[in-house]
Structure formats: C-alpha cells, structure tokens
C-alpha cells in the first residue's frame, strides 16, 4: 500500500490595507478603490488550478495573511474556506488562522462564524506614541480591548509586538511586554524591529531622521524578552514565537520552518511542493500586482512555477529549520531530502563562536546564538 499523501497548508494573501505602515515590506496596497469581489473570485479560481496540481490531500492549516485580511468581508472568508474544503478537505482539528488589526474588532464575531479558529492580532506596541510612529491606526487601549474581544470569539489568540523601536528602553519594553503577558494568552509573536530596504523607515534611517536603539540595547531587550516569557510559562519555540505548550504552536508557520508543503494564493503569495530525495521541489510565486493576479487567475496564469535545484532547496531548509529552538536542523534529514549536508568549515566556525551546538544529528542554536540566526545559517549553508 502506498503512503498517504502529505498534508498541505494553504496561505491566502489579502494585500489590501487601510494604510501602509512605514516598517512594512510585504506586498501590500491601499484598500481605497480595491475590487475585493474581483480578487476573491480570482483566489477561488486559483484554488481550482492548484487542486489539479496537488491531487487529493488534506489541508492541515489555512492561513489568511497580508496585508490586512480582517478587512475581508466574512462572507468572502467563508467562500474561500468552503472552496478549500470542497477541493481538499480539512484534516481533523485543522488550524484556520487569520491576521487582524485591533480596529477590526467589530468583525471578529463574523470571522469566527465564517470558520476562523485562530486569530493573530497585530498589536505591534502598547505605547501610544510608538503606535503613532509605527503608523498604526489604533491606540494601546483599543489593542487591549481587541485582544480581550478576540479571546471571547476564538479558541486560539496570539498577538504580535515589535521591540527595539526608536527611543525604546529595556524598561519601557518590559512594561509593554508585562501588559501583554497579563492578558493570559497562550501564544505571543515578538519581533525585533528590522529596517527593511525600500520601506519608509529605511529612507528615514538613511536621512538620519530615524535612529533605532544601539545593538547592545536591542540585545538587552532580546534577553529580557526570553527571561520574561519563560517566567510567564511562554518560552520561545521559534526565534520570535512563544507558546505555553506544543498544543499552542502555530501549525501553519511550522510548515514553513519544517520545510513541509504549502500552496499560496493571492497577489505575491509563495508556494512550495514536494520533498523528494536529491531535491526537485516545486516553487511558485503569484503575480504581485492585484490587477495582474486577477487577470491571470481564470486561465491559470496567475502563478509562476519553477523547480528548485537541490542546493537551493538545502539552503532554504537550513535557513528555516535552524529557527526552531528545540528541534533545530536535522542534518540527516537534510541530506536525505537534498543530497547536501551543511558546510563543514562553516559548521566549525559556528560551533567555535558558540552560536550552535550538536545534539546527535541535529544542530540547534544556543540561547545567545538565536540573536545571530541568519549569520549562523549563512555559515552552514552548503
């Protein structure tokens, strides 16, 4: 008997936002004059084409990201979920997640009724001056009320916060993180601010009108984050993600970190399919502009497909797998899937720097090494 097909994840990218935050480098567009119905129809058509490519598999997760998918009408969310369930079916206990802004709290009941069972709330800060600097359209009080409202509607709730912001001190971050922990949530996503090229923040940094905290202050905030979350019973299970137990991990995000299979629909969405010995993984990227995506979806031309060579696949797997705090990167599995091991000279240097440690066939970031994850991955990449 042949093995059952591997489970899939489904990512739905909704690119529209009420406003574009100055730190954001995602594929986003202002929602004014957006043709939401046309985009929904295109996503449904794209799903049909993906079903022909994947064959019958159960969906382990569905995740609506963006952009601001909480701007979707709940009926549009329900339509996407209904089509996905018809085409693939949902695995028992499938995670159905959606990213939301606090300002959309009035839509939470409708989104829950549409089928969402995990909400990721983009709080970003719990300081009003910082929220204004980040370009957010809510204040701290609204964010806290939205988190409480979400807990009444959804079985699983997480909030996102950004630290190491301009003008932020470790004491200030400790107060904000403490307020978040007081909510009693089972999952937090805590990201150090990164100034991404091409963003408004990058342009401000070039002009000197934005000055992030120095590296040592950012490192202090990182260590403070680890200590406070561990004391509260939410240790990191991935570099930026914290959960009360394995039952509260993000099922969908683990597909990325573990190098599993997922399909992405919506403008600019990415997909990965296949895990064959010696490489051969299919990668896809959807047309980035909504108008181009809408135009191509009906004919199946919204997605550009290619096959990653074994080395490119191995590099991806090193970068993503190393982010998992406990499991780390399984080098035996890496070799079995791609035919490549890690770079031995790079491994020697990463070990000498104390950024990674060996645990059998696994390479795991040390506590201090988590702050250097990308540089460690670059050393280890074949």
From TrEMBL:
<comment type="function">
    <text>Probably acts as a heme chaperone, transferring heme to an unknown acceptor. Binds one molecule of heme per monomer, possibly covalently. Binds 1 [4Fe-4S] cluster. The cluster is coordinated with 3 cysteines and an exchangeable S-adenosyl-L-methionine.</text>
</comment>
<protein>
    <recommendedName>
        <fullName>Heme chaperone HemW</fullName>
    </recommendedName>
</protein>
<dbReference type="InterPro" id="IPR006638">
    <property type="entry name" value="Elp3/MiaA/NifB-like_rSAM"/>
</dbReference>
<keyword id="KW-0963">Cytoplasm</keyword>
<dbReference type="GO" id="GO:0051539">
    <property type="term" value="F:4 iron, 4 sulfur cluster binding"/>
</dbReference>
<dbReference type="Pfam" id="PF04055">
    <property type="entry name" value="Radical_SAM"/>
</dbReference>
<dbReference type="InterPro" id="IPR058240">
    <property type="entry name" value="rSAM_sf"/>
</dbReference>
<keyword id="KW-0143">Chaperone</keyword>
<dbReference type="GO" id="GO:0046872">
    <property type="term" value="F:metal ion binding"/>
</dbReference>
<keyword id="KW-0411">Iron-sulfur</keyword>
<feature type="domain" description="Radical SAM core">
    <location>
        <begin position="2"/>
        <end position="235"/>
    </location>
</feature>
<dbReference type="InterPro" id="IPR034505">
    <property type="entry name" value="Coproporphyrinogen-III_oxidase"/>
</dbReference>
<keyword id="KW-0349">Heme</keyword>
<dbReference type="GO" id="GO:0005737">
    <property type="term" value="C:cytoplasm"/>
</dbReference>
<keyword id="KW-0004">4Fe-4S</keyword>
<dbReference type="InterPro" id="IPR007197">
    <property type="entry name" value="rSAM"/>
</dbReference>
<dbReference type="GO" id="GO:0006779">
    <property type="term" value="P:porphyrin-containing compound biosynthetic process"/>
</dbReference>
<dbReference type="GO" id="GO:0004109">
    <property type="term" value="F:coproporphyrinogen oxidase activity"/>
</dbReference>
<keyword id="KW-0408">Iron</keyword>
<keyword id="KW-0949">S-adenosyl-L-methionine</keyword>
<keyword id="KW-0479">Metal-binding</keyword>
<dbReference type="InterPro" id="IPR004559">
    <property type="entry name" value="HemW-like"/>
</dbReference>
<comment type="similarity">
    <text>Belongs to the anaerobic coproporphyrinogen-III oxidase family. HemW subfamily.</text>
</comment>
């Amino acid at each position: 008997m042949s093995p059952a097909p591997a489970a899939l994840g489904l990512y739905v990218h909704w690119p529209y936002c009420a406003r574009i935050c100055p730190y954001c480098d995602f594929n986003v567009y202002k929602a004014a004059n957006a043709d939401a119905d046309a985009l929904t129809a295109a996503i449904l058509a794209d799903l049909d084409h993906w079903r022909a490519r994947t064959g019958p598999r159960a969906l382990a997760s569905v995740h609506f990201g963006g952009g601001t998918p909480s701007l979707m009408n709940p009926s549009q969310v329900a339509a996407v979920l209904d089509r996905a369930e018809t085409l693939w079916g949902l695995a028992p206990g499938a995670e159905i997640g959606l990213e939301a802004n606090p300002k959309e709290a009035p839509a939470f009941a409708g989104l829950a009724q549409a089928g969402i069972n995990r909400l990721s709330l983009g709080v970003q800060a719990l300081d009003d001056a910082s929220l204004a600097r980040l370009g957010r359209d809510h204040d701290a009080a609204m964010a806290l009320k939205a988190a409480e409202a979400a807990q009444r509607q959804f079985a699983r709730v997480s909030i996102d916060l950004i630290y190491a912001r301009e003008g932020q001190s470790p004491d200030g971050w400790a107060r904000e993180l403490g307020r978040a922990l007081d909510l009693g949530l089972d999952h937090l996503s805590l990201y150090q601010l990164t100034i991404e090229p091409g963003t408004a923040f990058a342009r401000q940094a070039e002009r000197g009108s934005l000055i992030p905290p120095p590296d040592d202050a950012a490192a202090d905030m990182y260590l403070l984050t680890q200590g406070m979350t561990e004391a509260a019973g939410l240790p990191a299970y991935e570099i930026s993600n914290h959960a009360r137990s394995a039952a509260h991990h993000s099922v969908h995000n683990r597909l990325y970190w573990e190098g599993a299979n997922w399909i992405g629909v919506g403008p600019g969405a990415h997909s990965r399919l296949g895990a064959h010995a010696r490489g051969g993984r299919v990668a896809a990227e959807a047309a980035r502009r909504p108008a181009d995506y809408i135009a191509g979806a009906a004919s199946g031309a919204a997605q550009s497909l290619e096959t990653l060579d074994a080395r490119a696949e191995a590099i991806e797997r090193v970068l993503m797998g190393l982010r998992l705090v406990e499991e780390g990167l399984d080098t035996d599995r890496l070799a079995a899937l791609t035919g490549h091991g890690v770079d031995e000279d790079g491994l020697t240097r990463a070990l000498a720097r104390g950024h990674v440690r060996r645990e059998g066939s696994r390479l795991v970031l040390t506590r201090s090494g988590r702050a250097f994850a990308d540089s460690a991955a670059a050393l280890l990449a074949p």
